Amino acid sequence: LHAERKPWAEDNRVPMEKVLSDHSSAKFKYEYVAVCVNSTDETLLDIVHGKECKNAESRVALGKYSNQVNTTGWGILEIETFASHSYDVQAYAAGVAEGELTRLQIYYHYKNTIETMCTNHTLFCKRLYKYLQKNLDWLRSEVIAQPPTDPFWRQVNLTFAQLTGIYDSYSKRNLTPEIGFDLHPIYMMQLAGDMFDLNKLLNKTADPLDYPEGGR
Amino acid sequence: CSGFVKLAPGNKDLFISHVSMSSLSWMQRILKIYKFGYDVNEVPGHILTFSSYPGALVSMDDYTITSAGLTSIETTIAIFNNELYTDKYMKPEGQVHCWIRSMISNLLAKTGKQWVDIFGNYNSGTYNNQWTVLDWKHFTPGQPIPDKDVLWILEQTPGYFETRDMSWYLKKYTYFSSYNIPFLPKISERSGFDGKSKQFSWYEWGGSPRARIFDRDHNKVTDIDSLMALMRYNDYTHDEFAKCNCTPFPYTGEGGISARGDLNVPGGTYEVESMGFRDHAGLDFKGTNYEMFKKMQFRAWGGPPYDPLPVFDWNHTNLTNVRHFGQPDVWNFTYVDLEWE
Q: What is the DSSP string of chain A?
């Protein structure tokens, strides 16, 4: 049925003047969250909807988000962290703010790109799991083995702190600033580009509509 | 993807732009800025702004502006040489995946040279790209650009990467374009593009449709609007460079700066597989000029290119069974000019 249609249709063209006029009248709402050190247990962080924590010093990160997906095609996210806290806590809190503010879009993106990746590819996914777990274990061991002053490995550590923050926040877990080197769906979202070649290395069968020269 | 760096006439402005091409299921998009409270001397790129995806810590397009005065973009290099997919070059220990290396390069590099040097460490052989890194600190409007350190590229295959200062090229030709084909001879040879390009100009650096369109039209770019027009350009039914030995129509929607593989004919015959009907299109446009860069701003347009092509509409596409939860049905948007707080 679809093959009989022309590859493009005149009827769904939208005049550029209308697009620009609709756009200029659009009003966008912003949502804010602050990530604050818990007032009774300093090993925990809290999410506060709004810009302020109970006291200014306890604010580790501030996030601002506008979901304009249905009006511009984009969500717009701003995350700021504050220098009065350690780098590790800042990175984790940045992730926490993002996970909280963009939870809905993360969920949709998960549904679109991750949820079915192992459907009909069970053996491939077993190989992939083994490969990725081994890589995460090696990264963890290197972060521990390298001097904490090593700039590269310090940033590896901070990157995983931020990732852990997103995962904990998205999953509504306790917000204890930690650094996990764990395999979870949010981690898989980071690997999208790397997967083009891991698919080939680990012999994934191509899906019919896959672009033959996978990449971006 | 398509990447493009352009000096305006008289060096009055400088532009860097990118179009991401991928599966249309990847249109949940977020424009992000991270402002970390790290010491600027330790982490020059402590402020990062980029086009991205939900849950992603890096751009993945890639299009990233850093507070160190750099912009990094990339287009992917396909690896046709399957002999590179072995545990000799790709292994789970001793290698760091691309997304982490790109994050760390953006955070730590002060210069384009530093960016490519950092990125080259622990090559995982995954997400093999041609990276283009522009150092805005060497640009002054109306002045000639220096002979070096304005523009660096890095190209990667499993087990090997190479970097080169391409400032001379930008100075000589006033533009540098990136279109999924390696520039460096050894990368071309290792990846298999050498052999492919002898069979089809589709794979030839300088000879592929996008290379030829960029070469023909780069002079049309004088401001951010004309930059956007070039990067979203796709008029494949009329453009001579989009012609192919294909049936039922002698052209391909992949033959534009921003692709529309969804408009090709299902069941059609295409001389190269990647010319055909696919879940593959340009998903966006991002571009910045010198004034915008100074405020870490850029212009972004979400969705596949239209005008003169039809607007992408999930209700009127031949792509069925492509997941698009949470996406608008009709992608008839225009651009946003980002202004961060």
A: -GGGS-SS-GGG---HHHHHHHHHT-----EEEEEEE-SS-TT-EEEEESS--SSGGGEEEEEEEEEETTTTSEEEEEEEE-TTS-HHHHHHHHHHHHHHHTHHHHHHHHHHHTTTTTTT-HHHHHHHHHHHHHHHHHHHHHHHHS-TT-HHHHHHHHHHHHHHHHHHHHTT------------HHHHHHTHHHHHHHHHHTTPPPPTTS-TT---
The conformation of residue B3, written as its DSSP 8-state character, comes to E
Mean pLDDT by 10 residues, chain B (341 residues): 98 98 97 98 98 98 97 98 97 98 98 98 98 98 98 98 98 98 98 97 98 98 98 98 97 98 97 95 98 98 97 97 96 95 83
Q: Which residues of A touch B328 (CB under 8 A)?
A: 69-70, 73
Contact B103, B52 (CB under 8 A): no
**Cβ B310–A10 below 8 Å, yes or no?**
yes
Using DSSP's 3-state secondary structure scheme, residue B257 falls into coil
Q: In a 10 Å sphere around its CB, with 0-12 CB exposed, 13-18 middle and 19+ buried, how is residue A23 labelled?
A: middle
Cross-chain residue pair A77–B341, CB shorter than 8 Å:
no
Q: Cα-flanking dihedrals φ and ψ of residue B285, to 5°?
A: -140, 140
CA-to-CA distance for B43 and B52, rounded, in angstroms? 21
What's B226's DSSP letter? Answer: H
CB contact under 8 A, A111 and B323: yes
Contact B103 A159 (CB under 8 A): yes
**Rounded distance between C-alpha atoms, residue A209 and residue A206, angstroms:** 8
Closest C-alpha to B112, from B161, B72, B61 = B72
Residue A151 has pLDDT above 90, yes or no: yes
Task: Answer yes or no: do A81 and B129 touch at CB < 8 A.
Answer: no
Identify the closest residue of chain B to A115 by CA–CA distance: B323
Q: What is the pLDDT of residue A12?
A: 42
Q: How many CB atoms lie within 10 A of CB B267?
A: 12
Hey, CA dihedral for A15, A21, A25, A31, is it positive or negative? positive
ipTM of the complex in this document: 0.97
Instruction: Answer yes or no: are the C-beta atoms of A37 and A45 closer than 8 Å.
Output: yes
Q: How confident is the model at residue A206 (pLDDT cuts 50, 70, 90)?
A: confident
Confidence of residue A210 (pLDDT cuts 50, 70, 90): confident
Nearest-by-Cβ selection for A134 from B92, B267, B302:
B92
Q: How far is CA B10 from the centre of its chain?
A: 25
> Which of B92, B99, B307 is nearest residue A190 as measured by Cβ atoms?
B99
Nearest-Cα distance to chain A for B331, in Å, is 7
Q: Minimal Cα–Cα distance from B334 to chain A, Å?
A: 6
